[in-house]
Amino acid sequence: MERNLTAAEAAVLEVLLLNASSDQETEPTAELRNQWVAQIPNLQVVHECGCGACPTIDFTDPKAKFNHRIVLSAFDDTQGAGILVFIDDNQLSCLEVYPSANEAAELPAVENISF
After folding, report:
1. Whether the predicted pLDDT of 42 surpasses 90
2. Which pTM was predicted?
3. What domain of life does the UniProt record list for this protein's source (predicted)?
4. What backbone torsions phi and psi does residue 93 show, to the nearest 5 degrees?
């Protein structure tokens, strides 16, 4: 069952795409980051994590194969949660929010995200 992004999910995704650090040797250019942001209005959530501890959402099949992955990362200090955006073959594929303790994590408020 596909669905549109919520306004909160889109806002978190945009802030991360524009500001979060990358796992690559060189940081993505502003032009590339803007290309990723331009994908947000057309994204569909195709899968939601069912673990009960996180609000992770996928925009592509989680089992899909890819050639190149970029991971952007940030943190929510208020709830001690990590936040990752996965970009596979230049397509946004996943927004992951994971708890760093044994408590469930929620989608962070944009103002609580640190880079």
Report:
1. yes
2. 0.94
3. Bacteria
4. -120, -25
- 88: which residues sit within 8 A by CB, 6+ positions away? 60, 64, 66, 68, 69
Both tokens of 61, joined, read 């099949």
Note the pLDDT of residue 63: 84
Let me know: does 59 contact 43? Beta carbons within 8 Å.
Answer: yes
pLDDT reading at 1 higher than 80: no
Check residue 100 and give its pLDDT.
Answer: 83
For residue 63, give the 3-state DSSP assignment: coil
Cα–Cα distance list, 106 to 53, 55, 66, 80 (Å) = 8, 6, 28, 10
Could you give the dihedral angle defined by the CA atoms of residues 7, 56, 111 and 100, in that order, rounded to the nearest 10 degrees? Answer: 170
- Specify the residue for token string 């899909």: 64
Span between the terminal Cα atoms of the chain, in Å: 33
Q: What pLDDT is recorded for position 61?
A: 85
